């Protein structure tokens, strides 16, 4: 499965930024060893249900340690039996654009 998720604290730091909390989430995702990518809006993560949800929980817990309230947006593509789709889906679209 592939998930796209975004986590943010309810309150920014003293400069109005949430980048420190987001950086901690990205660190957790990268340390998971699961295929992932981060863009300006979401972090995409690929793996089995229990694997990706464990990473999301760890990320939520890390942000919750910084803020009394956490926002989580999550979208999932659940397709049993398929792996490597984080890049393969994009490659199929790019192939059609040629």
Explain what you see.
The protein is of the alpha+beta class. It has one domain: Alpha-Beta Plaits (2-Layer Sandwich). The chain is 43% helix and 23% strand. The chain contains three helices and four strands, in the order E-H-E-E-H-E-H. The chain has helices at 19-31, 49-64, 85-97, and strands at 2-9, 36-38, 43-46, 70-77. A four-stranded antiparallel β-sheet has the order 2-3-1-4, with helices on one face. Strand 2 and strand 3 form a beta hairpin. Helix 1 packs antiparallel against helix 2 (49-64). It starts with a strand and ends with a helix. 18% of the residues are buried. The model has no long low-confidence stretch (mean pLDDT 94). InterPro entries: MTH1187/YkoF-like, Thiamine_BP, UPF0045_domain. Residues 4-94 form the Thiamine-binding protein domain. It comes from Microlunatus elymi. This is MTH1187 family thiamine-binding protein. Pfam families: Thiamine_BP.
Which tags fit this structure?
98 residues; alpha+beta; Alpha-Beta Plaits; 3 helices
Radius of gyration, taken over Cα atoms and rounded to an integer in Å: 15 Å
What is the ordering of alpha helices and beta strands?
EHEEHEH
Helix tally? 3
Largest sheet: 4 strands, antiparallel
Number of domains: 1
Please state the average pLDDT score.
94
Task: Output the strand order for the largest sheet.
Answer: 2-3-1-4
**Strand portion, in percent?**
15-25%
CATH-derived topology = Alpha-Beta Plaits
Class by alpha and beta content = alpha+beta
Quaternary state reads: single chain
What is the terminal-to-terminal distance? 27 Å
Classify the helix fraction into a percent range.
40-55%
CATH architecture: 2-Layer Sandwich
The top-level CATH class is Alpha Beta
- Number of separate strands: 4
Low-confidence stretches: none
């Amino acid at each position: 499965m592939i998930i796209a998720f975004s986590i943010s604290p309810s309150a920014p730091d003293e400069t109005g930024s949430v980048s420190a909390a987001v950086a901690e989430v990205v660190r957790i995702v990268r340390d998971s060893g699961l295929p992932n990518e981060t863009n300006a809006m979401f972090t995409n993560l690929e793996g089995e249900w229990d694997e990706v949800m464990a990473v999301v929980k760890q990320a939520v817990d890390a942000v919750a340690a910084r803020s009394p309230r956490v926002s989580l947006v999550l979208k999932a593509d659940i397709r049993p039996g398929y792996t490597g789709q984080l890049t393969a889906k994009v490659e199929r679209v790019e192939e059609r654009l040629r």
